[in-house]
Structures are given as C-alpha cells and as structure tokens.
Amino acid sequence: MKHSHVLGGLVLVGLSGLYGCAGQRSEAALEQASASFQKVKEDANVLRAAPKDVIRAGESLARADRLSTYWGSGEDVQHYAYLSQRYSEIAREHSNQVLNEERAAKLELERQRLQLALRESKLLSVQQQGKWLEEQIMAMATTQTDRGLVMTLGDVLFDTGEAELKNSANRVVLKIVQFLQLNPKRVVRIEGYTDSTGGKQENLKLSRDRAQAVADVLVDLGIDEKRIHVEGYGDEYPVDVNASERGRAQNRRVEIVFSDEKGQLGAAR
Predict the structure, then answer these.
(1) Which of 3, 68, 161, 258 has the fewest CB atoms lying closer than 10 Å?
(2) Helix or strand or coil: residue 144?
(3) Closest by CA position to 139, among listed 179, 183, 167, 185
(4) Is the domain of 89 the same as that of 131?
C-alpha cells in the first residue's frame, strides 16, 4: 500500500510538471501572437493592404485567448496562437508587396514624365540648347578641381538615410542628361559622400547607393553606362565640420565630376 501511494504521488507530480511545461509553452505562444497582432493592427499600411489577414489574425488570437482559460487545452491554444502569428506575418508580407508595387509604379510614372520632358526639350535647336546647357552646367558646377569640373547635388535631394532621389532632383538631372547628349565624348564620375553619423560600413554603402541612384537615372534616360563611373566614399573627404547640423548637411552630398571635351577625367580620390 505504501509503495502504491508513493508511485501514485510520483505520477501526479510528473503529470503536473508536464501540464506546467505545456502551459508555459502555450502562454509564450499566446504572448508572441498577441505582440505580432498588435504591430500589424497599428500599422496603417498593413490595414490598408491586407485587412482580411489582420481580421483573421485577430479572430485566431481571440480564440486562443478563450481556450487558454480552460485547463488542459494547451495544444489548442498553441494551434490558434500559431494561426494568429502566421496571419500577422502574411498580412505584413502582403503589405510589403503592395508598397513595393506602388513604389515601382510611381518610379515608372516619373521615368515616363522625365522622358517626355526630354523629348519636348529636343524641339529647341541643338545650337541654342547646347549653349544654354553649357551655361547652366557651368553655373551649377562652381568648383574647378584637379579632378575636373565638379557639380554638387545637396542632401536635400534625398530623404534622410535613403538613396532614392526626390522629384526635386529631376530638373538638375535632366540638364545633366541633355548636356551629356550634346557632348557625346564627355564622361562623368559620380561620387557619393555622407556625414560622420552612423557606422563606417553603413555610410560607405549609403554613399555608394546614392551615387548609383543618380547613375541609374542617367542610364534610364539614355546615357550609355560606359560613360558613367560610380564611387562611394562614405564619411571621408568632408567639406565642413560634422559638429554642427549645417556642417553635416554640407557633407551629405553627391558630386558629379565632368571630364574635359575629349573625355579625359581627372584622377579619382
């Protein structure tokens, strides 16, 4: 009898431990699902792009929450918590897909607009246009260096931390395209720079990406990619101190270095 009582007590203790572990797992799954649902529920882009998935995530989470009040239903709680978690992930994926498609459509529309403007501008005589563009480029490229004539595109043409050109850059880029079309022997080197905020590798990548973004627009508008060289220097070669916001803004830039009329570029940094 004593042995039976001892054995029964051990079984109960073992079962209690199993149920305790199961309860902990279901509680953790429920908390994770709840956190994921809260994030997608508060994201306006997700609600706009994938409302049905958000609703399904909420319904599954509510069911898991109700089941968690019943002892012994840990597997059911984990099942519906998993469904909620997955629906939240699907909603996020759908939202990202929609945002990417919208961004691509916007870029395509802007590219078409630029091409139209470029075609319309060709109605001017080549001679008049060439002289006017020469004056415009010289006015904007105010720095003559041993690397060549340098035009600076300021940080205002990019959103903070982003490499995508703003629409405000289109007028300048269009002039560069026209100038290069009328001077087919000239080549350019596009150099990207950042301020000292952030890590070295992140700054190097951002500077390269910004320079490449300008190069991509030039190529998209008909300039041969062989005439374009791209460099990213990160936070090297600042033109002002990084201690002030004004100085940092001056250092966040893209410089376009023009070759001479024979296509000879000055030495790179």
Answers:
(1) 3
(2) strand
(3) 179
(4) no
pLDDT tens-place string over residues 181-239? 888 999 999 999 999 988 999 999 999 999 999 999 999 999 999 999 999 999 999 99
Q: What value does the CA radius of gyration of the chain take, rounded to a whole number of Å?
A: 30
With b for 16 or more beta-carbon neighbours within 10 A and e for fewer, the 201-236 pattern comes to eebbbbbbbbbbbbbebbeebebeeebbbbbbbbbe
Structural tokens at position 79: 């099942």
Find tokens 């945002």 and name the residue.
Answer: 99
- Beta-carbon count within 10 A of 136 CB: 16
Q: How far does the chain reach from its first CA to its final CA, in angstroms?
A: 91
Q: Dmax over Cα atoms in the chain, in whole Å? A: 113
Asked if residue 93 and residue 172 are part of one domain, the reply reads no
Q: Are 141 and 229 within one domain?
A: yes
Give pLDDT tens digits for 52-75.
Answer: 999 999 999 998 888 887 665 678
Domain co-membership, 242 together with 154: yes
Give residue for tokens 């079309």. 181
259 CB-contact burial (10 Å; exposed 0-12 / middle 13-18 / buried 19+)? buried
pLDDT surpassing 90 at residue 266: no
Asked whether residue 203 falls in the same domain as residue 159, the answer is: yes
Rounded Cα–Cα distance for residues 216 and 237 (Å): 24
- Give the DSSP letter of residue 244: S
Total domains, the chain = 2
Contact by Cβ (8 Å): 188, 259: yes
Predicted model pTM: 0.54
- Per residue in 19-53, pLDDT tens? 455 567 788 888 998 999 999 999 999 999 899 99
- The answer to whether 158 and 164 have CB atoms below 8 angstroms apart is yes
Tokens of residue 241, six digits: 């101190």
